[in-house]
Amino acid sequence: MTTAEPAGALAGVTILDLTTVVMGPYATAILGDLGADVIKVESLDGDMTRRIGARRNPGMSAMTLTLQRNKRSIALDLKKPEGRAILEQLVPLADVVVTNLRPRSRKPLGLTYEALRALRQDVILCTAQAYAEDSPWRDHPAYDDMVQAASGAASLAERVDGEPRYAPYVIADKVSGLHMVIGILAALAHRAATGSGQHVEVPMVDTMIHFNLVEHLGGHAFDPAEGDFGWGRVLVPERTPYRTADGYVCLMPYSDANWADFFEVAELGHLRDDPRFADVNSRHGNMSELHAEIHEVTPKRTTQEWLDLCRERNIPAAALLDLSRVNDDPYVREQALLTPEQHPTEGAYFSPAHPVRMSESPAVLRRHAPRLGADTAELLSAIGYSRDDIDDLVRQGVTVVAA
């Protein structure tokens, strides 16, 4: 535990977390950061991410340090009746049960809304899987690349340079995880007003189609269509950081005044009266040509010179952050966005700060990520199991208690 801190906005809310990999654990980590008591139910070999990537000790990977922070860990074999019996005793303690198991896997474990309501009438169940539960695709597997493909995200790149590709991060997992948080918070507000729980469902493909179409539905929002699909400003191969004399820079004039000033400082005065770039709609329709003009001039100055010129005129611009050197960035350091912490078993590590800032109930690191089963004994004792009972469950292979 860290030193005493404000309780957090979700203090008093208990989350029973039966999620795995990134999407669900990301959502429940956010809820934990906001003050909820998150009980992480893991299989006897732990969440897959415990075994992926850099680590000092088995089961405590770098991803685990972030995705499992502010949680308590209990390890259960839910395929055994004794494991399921323990789960049934934990459910009444939980305001919210969260799982990303597929529907066909949830039912045998009693993780349907009807079964959970029998254990706690006002429970909130949040489920997430690839496709909607009432669809024929309900039990298809859900992994990030698959969802990027099925939601149209991967094909957007083909409109840029002719080749579909996946984003270089698990965007479908994290966007869907954020929507899980939104749905859970809304359900908690509804329950506070009405006393009623509910089933919150977050199909990943649905979520990403909604996410992708915000800007790209375009003229196809109308029936019949009133223009092209896609937002032209972002679907051009020339939309890349601009090379400078010593690196790269992002230059992003946006308003008409920004562009007028930029054409002046960039010595592109001949473009000020060009009808292709006269207003925002014209510019967005001719972004390839506009980017090409800028790419021609940016190598004439250093990155810092471009930043100085733009800031003098209040033109949006930014240097490129190298994430492998994130803690060298002055803004990151000044705002403590990656903070040094001391884990009780893993030693010194860096923890990304929660980005939402709340004046009265700030999000804080209250618990370091637990080892697998670190809280098994505590949680089983809370629901009436004796030390001998717990030892018997360990011997039977029902649970794991971390040393």
TrEMBL record:
It holds the Pfam family CoA_transf_3. The lineage of its organism: Bacteria, Bacillati, Actinomycetota, Actinomycetes, Pseudonocardiales. Keywords: Transferase. This is CoA transferase. It comes from the Bacteria. One of its GO terms (molecular function) is transferase activity. SUPFAM superfamilies: CoA-transferase family III (CaiB/BaiF) (SSF89796). Gene3D superfamilies: Crotonobetainyl-coa:carnitine coa-transferase, domain 1 (3.40.50.10540), formyl-coa transferase, domain 3 (3.30.1540.10).
